[in-house]
From TrEMBL:
A single GO molecular function term of this UniProt record: carbohydrate binding
Name this polypeptide is given: Glycoside hydrolase family 97 protein
Protein's organism: Candidatus Opimibacter skivensis
All copies of domain Glycosyl-hydrolase 97 catalytic, residue ranges: 337-506
Every Glycosyl-hydrolase 97 C-terminal oligomerisation domain range: 601-701
A Pfam family of this chain: GH97_C
Cited Gene3D superfamilies: 2.70.98.10, Aldolase class I (3.20.20.70)
Cofactor section: Ca(2+)
Subunit (UniProt): Monomer.
Lineage: Bacteria, Pseudomonadati, Bacteroidota, Saprospiria, Saprospirales
Record keywords, A-Z: Calcium, Hydrolase
PANTHER family (UniProt xref): GLUCAN 1,4-ALPHA-GLUCOSIDASE SUSB, GLUCAN 1,4-ALPHA-GLUCOSIDASE SUSB-RELATED
Domain Glycosyl-hydrolase 97 N-terminal, chain residue ranges per copy: 34-295
Regions that span the bilayer: none
Amino acid sequence: MISKVYLLIAVISLFNQFIYAGESKPVVITLSDIRLTFKLNKNGSPQYTVDFKNQPVIKPSLLGFHINDSTHLDKNFQIIKMDSSMVDVTWKPVWGEVSQIRNHYKQFTVHLIQNAKPSFLINIIFRVFEDGVGFRYEFPLQPHLTYFIVNDELTQFNLTGDHKTFWIPGDYDSNEYEYTTSRLSKVDNSKIKLISFGTRERSEPDKYAVQTPLMMKTDAGLYINIHEAALVNYPSMQLHVNKSAHSLTSDLVPDAIGNKAYLRTPAKTPWRTIIVSDKATDILASKMILNLNEPSTIKNTSWIKPMKYIGVWWELQTGLRSWTYSNHLDSLSEDGELVPHGHHGANTANVKRYIDFASKNDIPGLLVEGWNTGWEEWIFNWNGGHYDFVTPYPDFDVKAIESYAKKKDVQMIMHNETAADASTYDIQMDTAFQFMNKYGYKAVKTGYVGNIIPRGEHHDGQWMINHYIRSIEKASDHHIMIDIHEPVRPTGLSRTYPNFMACEAARGNEWHAFSTGNAVDHETILPFTRLMGGPMDYTPGIFKLRNYAKDHPERQMHSTLAKQLALYVTMYSPLQMAADLPENYEAHMDAFQFIKDVAVDWDDTKIVEAEPGDYITIARKEKGKNNWFVGTITDENSRTSTIPLSFLDAGKKYIAVIYGDGDNANWKNNPEAYKIEKYIVTNSSALKLKLAEGGGAAVSIMPATADQIKQLKVYP
């Protein structure tokens, strides 16, 4: 590790005397183009501003809390002391988009005491990076504040205007919404149908609340992203929109009785993050959220291995087969026993078929859903407690599948769907992970579809935040990698827990199977929103783009086949699924070659071009090799993407295989039209790729052999 830590200013103290009382002089911290200003206003209220290249980004905004029903920690503060330091270190992630990350910031901590009886202490820590600002609150150990309840966090983000905003509703239990693009003043989710689980009543969130990461663009061309980092022992932060004032206020997810958090001093909140640039590409390149998380807690990480996988999954989503072993309504024998109806997907023969395909095509992993008993009860019973995570259906031979997969060198991936019964999963976690260890499962996909049990808790509330972390830690104890579905959106915790490989926490590709699907521009927005906090298990790679859903011939992917390939590069994840059925890949093995070749772990990443809601082009270098992969996608508009290959080594020749949209391709009318071209390229080449409406292109670039140099044309 390369490490440089400079202490700028030692603790400033006047022997416990207040250095400021009431309104204070502004303190200014600047790094590169970012400037943070902090002060206490005339009411003794803490406030901050953020500027970029001398342009205001966040106008004077207040900070504080309401706690214990009647205590207001938002005014009458005095400054006890201030600390400041600078850090410049480089660290190496276990896996990621780059092989090393620079963590460069100036830190400013203000220690406050409230001029009241009793007096309360609170610290506010600011970190100023070259691409933004992070800040958090600390509650020191103190005699008058030990255990307390957070009623509201009062953090403000006062904006400079009515910005263009990419948003989804502030739902306490789901992130799986299509994005709305509008002015901030037009945010109103009261007309958006909230995602419902069953028939139970659910909490109605603030109709003017939106979820983070929130992406905005100003009329002056600034890009602003607001999120949080290191979400631990605290509810997730949504943002309430004050439309007339163009202001955002933190809106924490409550528990069943309306409280937001339960804390014991010493305590600290997650970081509130503001990333800003005049280039959209800089937003995607930012590593600030990762840098605000703690280093890895796992000392030996040799067992953590990124990989691609296929799954007994898409055929379940599209209705071709079932998660359930029996048809609960009409397949009962005379003695009341459930009778197999022949549509159960997780049967031994079918699983072996997938193992054969994975082995033949060098796909390391296989996920199988619907293997364990309880799916019939889940569908018809919302009371929980019906999964035990170790009992397979009669037609799923655990031992035989383990042996067959091992012989074929395929790694089985466990599936633990909890049906949102987190309390039961807490009890059975040890048993579940011991079962995985026994049968050789190195990774698990967990799920939380439904209303959380215990009743009244929410997917994004403090109780569940702690549950997710318990599952990650328990998985680590058993050397299991984990992929969580239906969780809170990530906040960079994969740095602290590198076995936390990916999660869902957004509207994935699967929505094309059981609904009208995702908007054509969906994947051009997600990297600026959901993926800012961590990798997403988006499940790309669908090749049969129409007529795939049983009983719903009208459903289709809002994508071309070439765009599905490009998503393996633009939608980052160290776990990437080849989501379609083996037979659909076998019909297009020339295109499937890109899925076989593309890496999942990277030494370097170049954000070539990007505009939220319109297009994205990304190039990535495979870890440990001199292979590059490029993905470029567009929205509903066709466009030409120009990709300079200046990132290639000088003086070397490469073979570029371009998987592009066909000349007459179109996401709606001709989505499966594609063409594959091969050329010799160098670092002076610039690819010009025509993308169809809703289309894309994927490119593999590998060192060329002498024969290839002789046989192939040089790119024009």
